[in-house]
Backbone:
């Protein structure tokens, strides 16, 4: 049997989805795709080009000018927006503050989902995001839904950004995470919701290694059944 194996990881912001997804991809030699980075790159383009997100025509025209690619030289996300690597800039606050509004736009979602589905066709892939198990790969062999205490999530992200030299407060990060949780779960288009067949992984008290082992056990059990 040579059907490809798809692992869909969804969950709240700053839950460690990408840490787990990268570790899984590395361990299993799968392709890793960070779908959030695509929404972030679109947001960066909209901000730079002052696209009015209320104006459907402007949004559609902008989407035609946006070409996204991944450089997969390692298991980190290297996202290329129209020939420019923007991996660092998309993690900064201006993008984080606007990405939920941009990712709520129907045309943006349709375009991203189409591209994501193309990437997962006939390849073993781990993709993380908000709608991977519910919209992008409804038939994924393994679906994980990640969650963790919001305070712990904010502290983890704060540490990460401070290490990168960002000038930011813990409060700002907590607010941003709470805001994005709210917007992501209440939007009309593909809101963040657990797929009925997704396994919940609350990692508030779990180390990255424990999370990896949890997920690998699931993969191994599924592969034995196949
Ligand atoms: O995973 P992240 O925090 O980098 O994602 C940034 C934003 O993109 C997040 O607030 C919601 C949106 N997103 C989405 O709507 N659907 C996805 N599949 C991935 C991300």
Residues:
């Amino acid at each position: 049997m040579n059907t490809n194996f798809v692992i869909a990881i969804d969950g709240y912001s700053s839950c460690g989805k990408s840490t787990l997804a990268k570790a899984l991809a590395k361990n299993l030699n799968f392709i890793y795709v960070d779908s959030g980075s695509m929404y972030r790159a679109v947001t960066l383009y909209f901000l730079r080009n002052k696209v009015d997100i209320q104006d459907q025509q402007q949004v559609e025209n902008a989407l035609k000018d946006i070409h996204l690619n991944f450089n997969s030289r390692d298991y980190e996300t290297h996202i290329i927006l129209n020939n420019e690597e923007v991996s660092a800039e998309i993690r900064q606050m201006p993008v984080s503050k606007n990405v939920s509004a941009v990712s709520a736009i129907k045309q943006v979602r349709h375009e991203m989902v189409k591209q994501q589905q193309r990437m997962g066709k006939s390849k073993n892939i781990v993709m993380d995001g908000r709608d991977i198990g519910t919209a992008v790969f409804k038939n994924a062999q393994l679906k994980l839904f990640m969650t963790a205490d919001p305070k712990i999530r904010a502290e983890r992200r704060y540490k990460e950004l401070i290490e990168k030299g960002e000038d930011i407060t813990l409060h700002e990060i907590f607010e941003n995470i709470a805001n994005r949780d709210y917007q992501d779960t209440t939007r009309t288009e593909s809101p963040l919701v657990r797929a009925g067949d997704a396994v919940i992984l609350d990692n508030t008290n779990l180390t990255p290694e424990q999370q990896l082992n949890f997920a690998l056990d699931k993969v191994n059990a599924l592969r034995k059944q196949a």
In short: The chain has nine helices and eight strands. The longest helix spans residues 208-225. The first strand starts at residue 6 and ends at 11.
